[in-house]
Design a protein that fits this description.
about 170 residues, 7 helices, about 80% helix, about 0% strand, globular, membrane, transmembrane helix, transmembrane
Length: about 170
């Protein structure tokens, strides 16, 4: 079977959701949505947290071993630092006025992957479930979710350029 319910993980998730919801409500009432920099900061923080939360199912499915969590966190922070250092180049390539073919492909990549392999990956996980058990299908689905977490990290964190410079 899959991982057991973790009450501490549940409360971490609830606390993060409450903090983000309060931030959104305060931003709405203070009309922070009128400023590009405030929108960009809110989207960057939410995207980074979403990317981190995409890695948690993979960690839980493989047994929640400490070393796996440390490796996943190190990969997450390494990618975060790498993206933040090269944020202007990545932003220009994906969203900017100088968008190249890489940016167009990278923006379409998640939709192409989901569109072409969504049903296939589900069918593959169901076949693994019937052949090898419940855990193998969870590993496949959570590994796909972890990969999407890193794609989301790139897509959202390079928006930090919008926070720094309103001219983009």
């Amino acid at each position: 079977m899959g991982p057991d319910l973790s009450i501490p993980m549940f409360w971490v998730w609830v606390t993060v959701m409450i903090v983000l919801s309060v931030w959104a409500v305060i931003g709405y009432y203070r009309k922070m949505y009128e400023f590009v920099s405030s929108n960009a900061l809110f989207n960057v923080v939410n995207g980074d947290i979403m990317a981190l939360f995409c890695l948690i199912p993979l960690w839980r499915v493989v047994g929640a071993h400490l070393w796996v969590g440390v490796v996943l966190l190190c990969l997450y922070f390494f990618c975060l630092v790498l993206i933040h250092v090269n944020r202007k180049m990545i932003f220009d390539g994906i969203y900017g006025k100088k968008r190249n073919s890489f940016g167009k492909i990278f923006l379409l990549l998640p939709f192409i992957i989901v569109g072409l392999s969504g049903g296939g990956s589900y069918g593959y996980s169901v076949s693994l479930q019937t052949s090898f058990g419940y855990d193998s299908s969870l590993v496949v689905m959570s590994a796909l979710l972890g990969g999407f977490g890193f794609i989301f990290l790139v897509l959202f964190h390079c928006l930090w350029v919008k926070f720094e410079d309103n001219n983009n």
